[in-house]
Design goal:
This protein is α+β, with helices and mostly antiparallel strands. It is about 35% helix and about 45% strand. The protein has two helices and three strands, in the order αβββα.
Length: about 90
């Protein structure tokens, strides 16, 4: 099984537990190593309470905040595994 499949399965499992993540990837040229590199940015969904002037009520607005940066898919997968374990341990503690 390749690493992309594992990452997708972890993202699906985290979604089932109510945590939603977005992964952005950026390519840039590194003078240090003399080649193009990929940077992965993980964004985590949070909710922000916003006052709606039209209705006069507070509403929850979905927002994505930067949570983690890495430069390899293995690091990305390890982070998602740690998040899955963290969520599992929080559920056990309740």
């Amino acid at each position: 099984m390749n690493i992309n499949q594992n990452i997708n399965k972890l993202l699906f499992a985290l979604k089932q537990k109510g945590e939603l993540y977005k992964i952005n990837s950026f390519q840039f040229y590194s003078e240090k190593v003399g080649k193009y590199c990929t940077k992965y940015q993980i964004l985590k969904r949070t909710f922000e309470e916003v006052y709606n002037v039209g209705t006069g009520e507070f509403e929850l607005k979905e927002k994505y905040e930067q949570d983690y940066d890495c430069y390899g898919k293995v690091e990305l997968m390890k982070y998602l595994i740690d998040e899955y374990k963290r969520i599992g341990s929080e559920a056990d503690g309740k």
